[in-house]
Amino acid sequence: MAAERELTPNSYIGHHLTFFQHPVGEGSFWTLNVDSLVTAVVLGFVGVGFLWWVVRGATSGVPNKRQAFVEILCDFVDRQAKDIFQGDRKFIAPTALTVGLWVLLMNSMDFLPVDIMAWIYENVLHLHNWRGVPTADVNTTFALALTVWLLMIYFSVTVKGLGGWIHELFCTPFGVRPLWASPLLAFFNFLFNMVEYISKPLSHSLRLFGNMYAGEIIFLLLWMMAGAGLAGTLLAVPLGLVWAIFHILIVLLQAYIFMMLTIVYIFQPPVQHGRIRLQAAVALAAAVRQHVRGRDHLSAPVDDGRGRPHRRRLGGRARRGLGDLPYPDRRAAGVHIHDADDRLHLHGA
């Protein structure tokens, strides 16, 4: 009996890294890590409850300490979102705050002493295997990253349209010209975009999981060293304190990185689409300036016979004689004029 309960390094680490699992179907794939799911849900309610508690006690006058702390946090997240996305932030800022706070709370579970928590789980809650850090489970981080990935596709289709999104998959970044090579170019465009789409959720999830899992392993190794005797304890305690201080930075930094990548991935399509439209507007303005300066002898306001100037519409197809435009692609400027001429009116030079 004593031999069965003998503690070895393998059994010690294996005990702390074993999930409390529940099968929901046939095969090892259909297995639910109950500890990660329950802990993540509980921490989600804790985060929402904390924000509700702060909002409930908020005042329009001088804020108290907890209100000031949350206001600073919200202002920080909003400024980070504003640096990436200049449009309406009614969705992006709350999303970033929710993701950042939730990941921070899940990462912070790594601050709890593993042996003390293992004793509580087994003797108080009667749970032999229970892992308390949800982000040290690749299933949790991949579920978060996959949710962000689906939101990224949704916003991309919303901004560009389904046809524009499919066109981008097959026509960028290499284009489809010349026409005889378009099937091959379309294949490589699609392959390139698929690599990008697949790598985003993988890198997003594995970055967080790898850092938290490695931190958990290092803590286990240090505490196992402390159980090797007095010399091991004298060596493990200062190393553990140093690593605990450094791990605080890792917990905060990984939550911040995950939050920022969430903003970038979800709202990168609207930003890119806005930049393309801005480039089109710059090219159009440059071409119009060449016209009104006399490059194509566009007249000044025309009198309509009643003593007031008549607005002249720039109509027709884009001309080839646009002159030397301050734009790297003269053909692109012509295309943008042709696309926008139904909405453009000139008042003269």
Backbone shape: globular
Task: Please state how the strands of the largest beta sheet are arranged side by side.
Answer: 1-2
SS-based class: mainly alpha
**Major β-sheet annotation:** 2 strands, antiparallel
Kindly state the number of beta strands. Answer: 6
Which regions are unreliable across 5 or more consecutive residues at pLDDT < 50?
295-349
Integer average pLDDT = 77
The total count of helices amounts to: 9
Radius of gyration: 30 Å
Give the total of domains: 2
What is the terminal separation in angstroms? 98 Å
What do you see in this structure?
- This protein has 349 residues and is mainly alpha-helical.
- The chain folds into 2 domains: 21-279, no CATH class; 280-346, no CATH class.
- It is 67% helix and 4% strand.
- The chain is built from 9 helices and 6 strands; from the N terminus they run αββαααααααβββαβ.
- It has helices at 9-16, 34-56, 65-84, 92-108, 114-123, 138-171, 182-226, 230-295, 330-340; strands at 21-23, 31-33, 302-303, 309-310, 312-313, 345-346.
- Strand 3 (302-303) and strand 4 form a beta hairpin.
- The longest helix is centred in the C-terminal third of the chain and has 66 residues, at 230-295.
- Residues 295-349 have low confidence and may be disordered.
